[in-house]
Amino acid sequence: xxxxxxxxxxxxxxxxxLSDLHFxxxxxxxxxLRPGLVxxxxxxxxxxAKIEKHLDFVSITGDLAERGNIESYEGLKKLLNAMSIxxxxxxGNHDNRDDLRRVFASAYYFTSNDPxxxxxxxxxxxxxxxxxxxxxxxSGRISDDQLSxxxxxxxxxxxxxxxxxxxxxxxxxxxxxxxEMAEVEGAEELGELIRRSKSKVVVLSGHVHRPYxxxxxxxxxxxxxxxxxxMGSSFCxxxxxxxxxxxxxxxxxxxxDSQGTHSVGTRYVSLDVxxxxxxxxxxxxx
Length: 286
Ligand SMILES: [Fe+2]
Fold this sequence. Notes:
Radius of gyration: 18 Å
Low-confidence stretches: 1-9
Largest sheet: 6 strands, mixed
Bound molecules: fe (ii) ion
Structural class: alpha/beta
Number of domains: 1
Strand order of the largest sheet: 4-5-7-9-11-10
Order of helices and strands: HEHEHEHEEEHEHEHEEEEEEEH
CATH architecture: 4-Layer Sandwich
CATH superfamily: Metallo-dependent phosphatases
CATH topology: Purple Acid Phosphatase, chain A, domain 2
Number of strands: 15
Strand content: 25-35%
Number of helices: 8
CATH class: Alpha Beta
Mean pLDDT: 87
Helix content: 10-25%
């Protein structure tokens, strides 16, 4: 049997994608959140720390805290300190940009202006963060200024691969309730840029609290599951209303090799902490 190292040997870039941590020390006050949330998040980061020597970075696509404030981010920072590789963050609709900067500015790359977009080069691979948050709203937006920045990032020819991280998925999931929550102004314009790009594009998102994969305008697209809680219906493409579901948690590990192959592995983490949710708690949405 091949070991993890052998499987990923020769890859140009390897990274983990996480999202929607919703950190809070008072999870029990918020019915949808997993009881024992801090312990659960600790288990996730401990698991990533076990494999971090094989990774180039971790991408977290927003909703780092349930209520974005200094206290929550300070608490989360203690868990993130379990890892020593770069962590790239974009905000989600639960986050507060100013407090994110105050707590994480010394540890992570953030621009001083809104939106909190970023660009990092790893040789012939570039990593872009797109801040899609509209303050006070659950839906998202890519502004005209961001689209012109993305045009310059996606339509040049000096990268082979581009990883785009953004909280709100710009692609449809096939589930009407997810797609309503994830509405993103400017998504079709981004899709057109991706279609025209010579770079092979990977899109990482969160927001809908369910692991999901699709191909959209030629890009491989992923939504990370939510360690804070996961949503589901009785059929993954939506034959019933969404509710919080009890199911195993897993996260994706991505590897891009020098031949252009993009491989994705799944790593399961047992988060069996705290008491099971009541039926009332399960019925609470995002
Ligand atoms: Fe979320």
